[in-house]
Specification:
Length: 116
């Protein structure tokens, strides 16, 4: 027996007759209410799933924006770092060593001691 989705009494009666059961032999009065309740529950579940899907899509979009921003910032920092390194290397080549810029300390003449 195959599973069948039943959304109305007509579907149920068709299912029963297809499998050689007579719908007249069964009290199907309660089935109508059950089918309606099930349809309502399915509609609510579908709506909730759509809302959840939209929420996930919004989160994914926000994360993609954050990733793009982080990549852009990383590229900017890398470019600045490369420029800074190049500039520092060029300065090192053209400037004289720092030690040569510092003047030799001069010798102080001996100061007389003060006596009280």
């Amino acid at each position: 027996m195959k599973a069948t989705i039943i959304t109305s009494m007509k579907d149920l009666e068709s299912f029963l007759t297809h499998h050689k059961y007579s719908p007249k032999h069964y009290d199907l009065g309660q089935v109508t209410g059950i089918i309606k309740e099930t349809d309502q529950g399915n509609a609510q579940a579908e709506e909730a799933m759509k809302e959840q899907l939209n929420s996930f899509q919004d989160r994914i979009s926000a994360l993609k924006e954050k990733i793009a921003g982080a990549r852009s910032e990383r590229q900017t920092r890398t470019a600045c770092s490369k420029t800074e390194n190049f500039s520092m290397t060029r300065c090192r080549r053209t400037s004289t060593p720092c030690e040569s810029k510092i003047p030799e300390p001069t010798k102080l003449s001996k100061m007389p001691e003060l006596t009280p």
